[in-house]
Amino acid sequence: MQNSLSISFHAPHTLLLLVLLPWVRGAVGQEGFCSVPPSVVAESSSKPLYWKVTNPTLSPANLQDLPGFTRSVYRWDHALITPESHVFSPLPDWVNTLGAYLITPAMGAHFSMYLAKMQENSRSGLPPKDVERFVFVVDGGVTFSNGSIIDHKLPVDSYAYLPPNVEHLLKCDTTATILIFERRYMSLENHCPEQIIGSTEKQPLLETPGEVFELRKLLPTSAPYDFNIHIMDFQPGEYLNVKEVHYNQHGLLLLEGQGIYRLGDSWYPVQAGDVIWMAPFVPQWYAALGKTPSRYLLYKDVNRNPL
């Protein structure tokens, strides 16, 4: 007897199904909805941390070789920039380094977010005057120097925050990929940010009342800092309770896992390596899918009056 499937939906659920259907076709199997094949799970456990960011795959698999296909989307209040759309070119004032700008003021953001691929014997340049910088290592490792006697090694999952107009240098003798945020610092009288070097694993888990995800903040929450970087972890099936609408902007890199992100009236399947820009007041929501945990890094402007 031929197998058949009969499902009835109310209107809102029908809309979500239509959005997810192209992605789901390749994900439904004997293991269940949006499951990850055992071979993929085993492969993930044997790879370095965040390896999917620099070795992405398209989803679903049957569209990987379709000419002209991309999941990237740009709207006036949000954007999804996926790895197959990255365009790398030499970074000004950097040595042996290619960069891909993913979020910039040209799309309406008040910050820049870009990936820098450092090659053998590469060196960083400085940001423009009065611009602060945040660096997060996603692959390989770099050496950080600020003119002091001691240089700092920054492996994967470590980071550095540089206040505006601070001399510093990032060096790489082999190869590395780093994520960088830059924005023009909004100064406050009698408040001066300090240089910070740290790693995600050393940051404490913070309380998230009404939510189930795990949260770490990589920068202090005090007034000298006009933005913060959040690391958010979701187990499969977990989702945001609040359907957020707020004045803050976001820049997001999905570091691990996969899920569904709502931006405005659109629902986007996302996976490790995807970047999202969220303008002020765009409705936003996330749910983790599959069988592996999700982790994303999130930029958020804070501690400043929106006027």
Automatic annotation (TrEMBL):
- Domain Cupin type-2, first and last residues per copy: 231-297
Q: Which UniProt keywords apply?
A: Signal
The cross-references to InterPro entries, in alphabetical order and at most eight, read: Cupin_2, RmlC-like_jellyroll, RmlC_Cupin_sf, UGHY, UGlyAH_cupin_C, UGlyAH_cupin_N
The answer to whether keyword Membrane applies is: no
Q: Where is the signal peptide?
A: 1-29
Any Pfam family hit:
Cupin_2
Q: Does the keyword Transferase apply?
A: no
NCBIfam families membership: ura-cupin (TIGR03214)
| Protein name (Swiss-Prot/TrEMBL) | Cupin type-2 domain-containing protein
Species this protein is from: Musa acuminata subsp. malaccensis (Wild banana)
